[in-house]
Every structure is written in structure tokens, then in C-alpha cells.
Amino acid sequence: MNPGITSLCERSDVRLMKFIDLFSGIGGFRLAMERAGHECVGYCEIDKFARKSYQAIFNTEGEWTEHDIRNATDESIRGIGRVDVICGGFPCQAFSVAGKRQGFADTRGTLFFEIMRFASILRPRYLFCENVPGLLNHEGGDTFETILRAMDEVGYDAEWDCLNSKDFGVPQNRERVFLIGHLRGASTRKVFPFGTNKQTADGIQGLSRTTNTLTARYGDAAGNGSFIAESERTAQRINGVGNLDIKGDDYIKRVYGTDGISPALPTMQGGKQEPKIAVPVLTPDRPEKRQNGRRFKENGEPMFTLTGQDRHGVMDGNHHIRKLTPRECWRLQGFPDWAFDRAQKVNSDSQLYKQAGNSVTVNVIYEIAKRL
Fold first, then answer.
1. pLDDT tens-digit series, residues 249-273
2. I need a surface site. Which of 12, 76, 239, 336 has the fewest CB within 10 A?
3. Which residues contact 150 (CB under 8 A, 6 or more apart)?
4. CA–CA separation, 341 and 345 (whole Å)
């Protein structure tokens, strides 16, 4: 068990289960599953930089591992032994509306069937998968039907739900589909639906309750910028205040106010692609929020374009545009600072940004994990 993680093992209604972490990334599934009292017996991740972060965060000595899941032989998989849960946020690019949505025609899309190969050999009680909402309607629903048929053929019944990270204690608007497979005849229990729980960040950060605005700071981390609630009133709102006059896709140009939640983190690697926020610079003689002689967007006022010089510093003396830091992006995914600190020692900011965007949100995974 890692520091800062409170186990539920002492509860009489919690059954310790062994799980394997496929497409593990930086360990969002693992962090949540371990907090729920379960034990990891192995992991698989092809990205060498994500593996470095994962190994820095967790004690992986003696565990089964593989870089490319396609290279895992059936004999090697059998050698893993008893597994109760297979976790896997299988690559989403093939199904995401942000990509070309080629589905199973994309080689990344076929990696779902590697999960089914593991399931056919290990026969775990549960399959615990995550992907983008675009998976549900890709090819008019045919892709998702193929997934359900594949699970059925291997002996698994399925349930699924679409959950948003903003409802689970982190200020990020991130919708994802969570798919649970139940081994037929294994006496598993239903997971979905369930209500949201905005207290889920407490045990992970070991600090006061995080909520839904970008304005406040954790006590000893104030210089880094973090996210704690000031008002439930702004909990469900993304406050876009303008666009930078720079080249690139629309999401690169957007600037967000600090009185709302973050949009979903992209898989950026720096290069001005990081989410940008306008931070108020409050002084006694300048209490108003103004930019170039006008107010910031409020109450549905249309967006305006910020000039090219705005991205370099202070806007009319009242607001400063800056990008989110890698630490802030990791916090938006529910990772505690101790985990980020370990990963930061072995990876560049460029990789840390990418890893945050590729990860699952720990808080959401935990809420599901404790119901298994």
C-alpha cells in the first residue's frame, strides 16, 4: 500500500481481490483499486515514459509485466495465477470524436480483443473497462455491439454507465463510459447505477474536501496552484472567457476563467496546447474584472478574442494568462501530490502533461472499485 492511501480492508463487507492492470498508463486504475483494498499482481504498458512514472509511483518488484500486450503469450498469461479483476482503459483514439473514429479498423481499436484473450485464460470475476463516450455510437452502435458480443462469447454479462469526473470531487468536465463485465455464474453484484459522491477526493489527497472551482489553493502547495471549492454555485460550469490570437486548433486558443471547472484534459505534450486560464490580479485600486477596457465574459456574454500579447503576461493590469501546470493537470485527474512528485523526478513536463490527459480519473475509478 502506498503512502496517503487509506485502505478499506478493515471493513467486513470488503473482499480483497487480486487485479491486473492492463493499458496501465500512470496507474489511475491501480491507485483507486488499491485504495479500495485490492491487490495488483501485474501491469502492462507500452509507453516507456508512462512506465517510468508508473514504476516510480508504485512498488512493482516481482510483479508480472509486459510492454506490448500483443507480445504476451498465452503461457505467460497463465503464469499470472489467480486474478479476480482485469482492469483496462483500452486505447480510446480509435473511437474518440477528436480522432478519425476508425474503430476496429484502427489497430489500437483491436486491442480490446487482447483484454478478451486475457479474460478467456484467467477467467476473472470482473472486467473493469473505460473508454470515451464515442464508443457507444460509433458506426451507429455496431462497434459497441461487437464488444458486447465478444464479452458474451467469452462468458461475461455486461453493464455500463457514462460518468462525468466533475461529479466526483474534481473540477474537470470529463465524460467517460465505464463497462463492467460479470463472469456468468460467479455470483457478482451489480455496480450501476449509483449516485455521485463529492467527498471522494478526501482520502486520496489526505486534505480537506476538494470541489469544483479553480480559485483556492491547498495549504502548503499554494505556490503551485490547485483546486478546492469556494462555491457549489459554479460547480457545473465551464467558464470560457476568450480566445488567444494564435495559430492552432480551437482548444489551444481558448482561455478559461478560474470561477468554473476545467474542460476535459487533452493528451497534450506542451507546445502551447495546455489548458490556459485567466487569473485575476486584484489590487485595491483595480477591483473590477476588465480586459482591454471591457468586462470579462459573464452571464452568457459572447466570447471575444484576446490579442497576441495577452498570452505573455498581464491583460490590462487585471488578469494574467497562464497555462495549467503539470501538477494541476494531475490533480484534475485525482492524483495526490506524492504520486506526481515521484513521476516528476523521472519525466519531463511534456510527458507529464501527456500522461495526465491519457489517464483515467482516480476518483471515479475508486467509487466503482469499492462496489466490486
1. 777 778 887 878 888 887 766 666 7
2. 12
3. 112, 113, 116
4. 7
Q: Cα separation of 332 and 358, whole Å?
A: 12
pTM of the full predicted structure?
0.77
What span, in angstroms and rounded, lies between the C-alpha atoms of 330 and 39?
A: 23
- Whether residue 112 contacts residue 135, with contact meaning beta carbons closer than 8 Å, is answered with no
In 3D, which of 137, 91, 140 has the Cα closest to residue 113? 91
Length of the chain equals 372
Q: Which CATH architecture has domain 18-199+337-369?
A: 3-Layer(aba) Sandwich (3.40)
Contact between 359 and 365 (Cβ < 8 Å): no
Q: What are the phi and psi torsion angles at 38 (to 5°)?
A: -95, 165
**What whole-number distance in Å separates Cα of residue 82 and Cα of residue 102?**
35
Residue identified by cell 505573455 is 312
Contact 361, 200 (CB under 8 A): no
> Which is more confidently placed, 157 or 194?
157
φ, ψ (nearest 5 deg) of residue 19? -135, 155
From residue 84, alpha-carbon distances to 16, 19, 40, 113 in Å are 9, 6, 10, 19
87 part of the active site: no
Rounded CA gap, 268 and 306, in Å? 22
**Catalytic choice (87, 92, 129, 329):** 92
The residue to which cell 478559461 is assigned: 256
The answer, yes or no, to whether residue 305 has pLDDT greater than 70, is no
Q: Is residue 328 scored above 70 in pLDDT?
A: yes
Q: Nearest 5°: phi and psi at 267? A: -90, 55
Indicate the domain borders of the chain: 18-199+337-369, 213-260+276-323
Mean of all residue pLDDT scores within the chain = 76
State the DSSP string of 227-265.
Answer: ---S-GGGTT---EEEEES-SS-HHHHEEEETTSPEEPP
At what angle are helices 349-358 and 48-57 packed, to 10 degrees?
A: 90
User: What is the predicted pLDDT for the residue at 102?
Assistant: 54
